[in-house]
Amino acid sequence: MSTDWFYDIGKPRFIVAPMVDASELAWRLLCRNHGAQLCYTPMFHSYLFTKDHKYRKDSLVSCKQDRPLIIQFCGNNPEVMALAAKMVESQCDAIDINLGCPQSIAKRGRYGAFLQDEWALLRDIVKQMSQSVSVPITCKVRIFEDIEKSVKYALMLQDAGCKLLTVHGRTREQKGPLTGVANWKHIKAIRDAVSVPVFANGNIQCLEDVYRCLDYTQVDGVMSAEGILTNPALFEGVNPLTWEIALEYVDLVEKYPCPSSYIRGHLFKIFHKIFNLNENDEIRQLLATGQNIDNFRYVCEEIKKKYADYHTGILQLENYENITHSGYNLILPPWICQPYVRISPEEHTQKIQECLNKLQDKLEKRQFEDSQGNLISRKKMKKLQRKSRRPFKDNQQNGRSGDICINETCPNPLGGKCQYQLCKKCCRNKCYEEDLDCTGHKIMVHTRKLIAIKYAENRGV
């Protein structure tokens, strides 16, 4: 199969990424309405797709306007992946293999970026899928640290039958707070080495970034994920009003339903700058607890009602200057769609270190030493402090002389009133052994024995 298929679908340059729980039909159509030329479905698990009819029915929802479309699968079994591809080939323009997911669930399931070291298995998967269907098989990958290895990896997939590569310019380890900046040099090197179409993914927050990437890497198209979640009109080159784009999405959801968790997630991304303001905690809570389309529409309308007059200039946002300089660094007003900017890995590492230092300081403050210099617990230290605050009592006041029990093997203090000059334990033993009484310790062995004898005689025993 040549690259003719790529021209047949219009040689798209603006692509919406496959996003779990986020690139459902309503969202794809919204992005298409605002400049996107090609969309991917969310990632589907190949095994579940082939075995579970309900999963298959709920996952793959499309319509006539939803083309060109690439369906993405994950998995590690060539036969299962090929079967899944066969089941959808008539409903899409290409089928993608997810080799880029870096999340822990992908590691547990042995798919995504955690297959990038198993080249023999990947060759088999790409080959079997390519032979099973009439549409192209594509791959979405992450780079290795080494450019040469990244290029060899891409060439291996191309030789196995891959007809298009989407290259995410980050390594498997670059995720979450350690995401950092994508490396376009790797993408450019791969573009120069392979003959199949290449899409670039990473560092796309506005249309200017798209053109910079196209110019630098010379790829065929640019894919956006995080950037397009906060501004669905990214490929149109505009920053729309948040409530307008949100209401347009809600209208599409009403026509093409999806789980409420998807809707909630999208609206949180669109309104992320609005919800950074403390004054909107109540509206944020309404969105967090919303369960149906009317709840979500109400949130959009409330935000519109609150900020529309500020946007038109009828009202002036008195605290806007303070908001701008209070850590948000807003270039655009908060009611305009704009990128979400992550802190750098260096800043994240610094914050973690600061937290660890504070924790260490707290732990050090909670450590105490006794009079011998030994570390003791906070509880024991408090007990010692309470004891030290008690008034001093002379041993004589307690009836104690301070002397030790006369039993040579006993280290205990003697009882102050013991007539035998013993501690209570030794006194008890002496009284039992020698049939004695000790009034000081109130140990009356001899007396009790006499009482018992007299009682027995009275009973005639």
Which architecture name of the largest domain does CATH use? Alpha-Beta Barrel
Number of strands: 12
| Number of spatially distinct domains | 4
* CATH topology description of the largest domain: TIM Barrel
Q: What is the residue-averaged pLDDT?
A: 89
Q: Give the distance, in angstroms, between the N- and C-terminal Cα atoms.
A: 117 Å
CATH class of the largest domain: Alpha Beta
Beta strand %: 5-15%
Q: Could you name the CATH homologous superfamily of the largest domain?
A: Aldolase class I
* Class based on secondary structure composition and strand pairing: alpha/beta
Gyration radius over CA: 38 Å
Helix content: 40-55%
- Largest sheet entry: 8 strands, parallel, barrel
Instruction: Categorize the overall geometry.
Output: elongated
Number of helices: 21
Strand sequence of the main sheet, in spatial order? 1-2-3-4-5-6-7-8
Low-confidence stretches: 321-328, 395-399
